[in-house]
Design goal:
Layout: H1 2-10, E1 14-21, E2 32-39, E3 70-75, E4 78-82, E5 85-88, H2 95-98, H3 114-131, H4 135-138, H5 142-155, H6 159-171, E6 192-197, E7 200-206, H7 223-232
Antiparallel strand pairs: 1-2, 1-5, 3-4, 6-7
Helix pairs in contact: 3-5, 5-6
Length: about 230
């Protein structure tokens, strides 16, 4: 609240807020967030394209009131009061401050750290909670998936275990586009083609690539896959 009272004293005539265009999960792409400045007198009014540099708007939220904080209950008797806009005496945002440019420090965040695991689950879950458009189709117990993932992440002892925890969380969406990638994890390269019939997976083709390794390579092909391939052939 100190920031709010300070700006009252200075008589600020503007407010600054983040305008979010989708949700930015990478350093590139169409989704981004940037700081914009609007007149204090516009609080409560619908955002206009003129306020956002004449960009087209999918929806028109109202200009938030900096004096009204968003109160969020975090559970366990902990709550948070968060401003979504701040008062400012500046009518222009410097280019260096317009875009959010967080600097990743990868060595700080590893799956060996319990806090990092729990934060990763919370971040992944909330991302889909607010931006995944197909909950009315998949009918999954998404809050239950969150609780299960948090319990597992709290006790995972290896990065591979935590990978499995996140994979189960994404699998709860029942969406074939979901996947979990970790740069440090070596993935097996398979040289085969699969199909399904009568609820069973069948290998329909095997390649001759000498680079194929892991469970799907010819040298490691399980008996059920080899039989399946022979039957189709």
């Amino acid at each position: 609240m100190s920031d709010v009272w300070f700006t009252y004293v200075t008589g600020a005539l503007w407010i600054v807020l983040f305008a979010a265009y989708g949700v930015r999960v990478a350093t590139a792409g169409a989704y981004r967030s940037e700081r914009v400045v609007v007149p204090l007198a516009n609080v409560g009014q619908l955002l206009s394209t003129a306020m956002l540099g004449n960009r087209p708007l999918v929806s028109r939220p109202r200009v938030p009131d900096p004096s009204r904080l968003v109160a969020v209950a975090l559970g366990g008797g902990v709550s948070m009061n968060l401003p979504v806009a701040l008062y400012t005496a500046d009518s222009v945002i410097a280019d260096s401050l317009r875009m959010s440019r967080p600097t990743p420090v990868a060595e700080r965040f590893t799956a060996n750290d319990r806090g990092t695991r729990l934060a990763a689950v919370a971040l992944a879950w909330s991302l889909f909670e607010h931006f995944y458009p197909y909950f009315d189709v998949v009918r999954t117990d998404w809050p239950g998936a969150r609780d299960a993932a948090l319990r597992a992440a709290a006790t995972d002892s290896t990065a591979d275990q935590f990978d499995a925890t996140i994979e189960r969380l994404i699998a709860a969406l029942r969406d074939g586009h979901g996947r979990v990638n970790r740069l440090a994890r070596a993935l097996a390269t398979t040289d085969l083609q699969l199909t399904s019939a009568e609820g069973r997976v069948i290998v329909t083709a095997l390649g001759d690539s000498s680079t194929a390794t892991g469970v799907g390579s010819k040298s490691n092909m399980p008996s059920w896959a080899a039989v399946g391939f022979s039957a189709v052939e």
